[in-house]
Amino acid sequence: MPGVELDGAGRIVRYDIEAQCRAVFDNVRVILEDAGSSWERLVDVTVFLTDLERDFATYNRLYGEYFAKVMPCRTTVGVARLPGPIAIELKCIATI
């Protein structure tokens, strides 16, 4: 995952939420297109953040940038952790 620095044991030392958001949003776009859908067909997005207090403002700014013309229903949830060295994960529903 871009923007992640790990220690020798594989634990997150620091991360760049902007780099992670951009990577996740770009990956979702590619997955949608590969599935025969598109960014414009998103209808629901659930976002999981491991540190709402620290990361919400940056994530929300980038969400506004990426979703300026598309307005799916959005839910943002704070979680204790996610699988792997990530600070953001998306669950998306789109039409085909």
As laid out across the biggest beta sheet, the strand order is: 4-3-5
| Most strands sheet | 3 strands, mixed
Coarse shape: globular
Helix amount, in percent? 25-40%
List the helices and strands and how they pair.
Layout: E1 4-6, E2 12-15, H1 17-34, E3 42-49, H2 52-66, E4 73-78, E5 88-94
Parallel strand pairs: 3-4
Antiparallel strand pairs: 1-2, 3-5
Describe the fold and architecture.
The protein has helices at 17-34, 52-66, and strands at residues 4-6, 12-15, 42-49, 73-78, 88-94. It is an alpha+beta fold. It has one domain (4-94): 2-Layer Sandwich (60s Ribosomal Protein L30, Chain: A), CATH 3.30.1330. Strands 4-3-5 form a three-stranded mixed beta sheet. Strands 1-2 form a two-stranded antiparallel ribbon. The N and C termini lie far apart (28 Å).
What's this model, at a glance?
Helices cover 34% and strands 29% of the residues. It is built from two helices and five strands. The strands form two sheets. A three-stranded mixed β-sheet has the order 4-3-5. Strands 1-2 form a two-stranded antiparallel ribbon.
Salient structural properties:
96 residues, alpha+beta, 3-stranded mixed β-sheet, two-stranded antiparallel ribbon
